[in-house]
Amino acid sequence: MQLWSRRKFFLTSLASSAVAGVGKLFGAASPVHAEVATPVATPGKRPLIISSANGLHALDKGMDILKKGGDTLDAAIAAVTVVENDPNNDSVGYGGLPNEEGEVELDASCMHGPTGRAGSVASVRRIKNVARLAKTVMEKTNHVMIVGDGARRFAVAEGFEESNLLTDHSRLIWLAWKASSSFNWRPGIDSPEWKEHVSSIFDGDAEKIAYAERVIAHPPTGTIPCMAVNENGDISATTTTSGLAWKIPGRVGDSPIIGAGCCVDNEVGAAGSTGKGEENIKISGGHTIIEMMRKGMSPKDACLEAMNRVAHNYRNDKKKLTTFHIFFYALNKDGVHGAASLWRNTYDHSRHSTYAVHDGTEARLVDCATLFDDVGGDT
């Protein structure tokens, strides 16, 4: 077990009064109140890697690197690259659902705890592995963020391959969305196919039609953040996404924003997010979580405090809050982890909200803490 420094002991002894003041400043959003955690008697397990639930099958890649003594950022990026390359995941990388013009635009960021460096890219087209591209920005330039066509050209100069990121699956869903939102993108009323055009796009496949109808009505905001800590307590993180489906071209969410969708302090821990990025940007959620953990909060309670601030921006009005969903994830340098969701359900309402954890034995799903014990989140 790591020994607590005098500085940590002093900060922890002051945490009760300090965080109590935070509650008065920002207000509690629900009966779930985040409280200051005392020093953990039994620290979490290290090495350890966590991600959003859609990274469950990919964490083995990252853990293999950690077990061999590899770099924590290499471990996190190796895990999310599996998801970026998966054409069946339509919220990250290849096969991501496109913007309103049918172009897949990707965002990503990363932070390397041991050196305090960061890299980020946004609105990138035709480059599949943008988490690795964000790391290349960090390593090869004196910048933190490169966006748009400049990021694409930088990627090509650094040897990244250009490719069409729109799979047949995501293209057909985009066409179905166009048909549902514009009379010009479906047969006219004089056509016998007018009422069944979306069905004809998917050759009558009921499962594909149902999925398309769901993502058309509620554009997904799925993402994968990943955080890794090694045996020495060094920690890094990355977040990668294809962003909000059907977005205005050039829209950027929280994923590439350092301090929002990704934040690391090697003396404290790491944090990330999925869901409606605009809400996270407004509270600098990643940074908020890090600072709450610095003051002594557990990762779970720090995530709940960030969620409280999101809800507070809407005066805890559930009618407004139910129009979106958001998750926060955190890992401290001792290997203690936690996550919180605004609502108790997943994005598609299929089950309880969870996140993925690999402690060196096997990857598993763990329940998130929830701010509201209700079903919500239309996006």
Could you give a short description of this structure?
This protein has helices at 6-26, 59-67, 72-84, 130-140, 148-157, 168-181, 197-201, 206-217, 277-283, 285-294, 299-312, 318-321; strands at 48-52, 106-112, 117-124, 145-147, 223-229, 235-241, 262-265, 269-275, 326-332, 337-343, 354-358, 363-367, 369-372. The chain has 379 residues and is α+β, with helices and mostly antiparallel strands.
E-strand count: 13
Helix content: 25-40%
- Report the span from N to C terminus: 42 Å
Based on the structure, what is the oligomeric state of the protein chains? single chain
How does the major sheet shape up? Answer: 8 strands, mixed
Rg from alpha-carbon coordinates? 21 Å
- Return the average pLDDT rounded to an integer: 87
Could you spell the SSE succession in H and E letters? HEHHEEHEHHHHEEEEHHHHEEEEE
Q: Tell me the strand order in the biggest sheet.
A: 4-3-2-6-5-1-11-12
Q: How many helical elements?
A: 12
> Which structural class is indicated by helix and strand composition?
alpha+beta
β-strand amount? 15-25%
Shape designation: globular
List low-pLDDT spans: 1-42
Structure description:
By secondary structure, the chain is an alpha+beta fold. The chain has helices at 6-26, 59-67, 72-84, 130-140, 148-157, 168-181, 197-201, 206-217, 277-283, 285-294, 299-312, 318-321, and strands spanning 48-52, 106-112, 117-124, 145-147, 223-229, 235-241, 262-265, 269-275, 326-332, 337-343, 354-358, 363-367, 369-372. A hairpin with a 3-residue loop joins strand 7 and strand 8 (269-275). Helix 2 runs antiparallel to helix 3, helix 6 (168-181) packs across helix 8 and helix 10 packs across helix 11. The model is unreliable at 1-42 (pLDDT under 50).
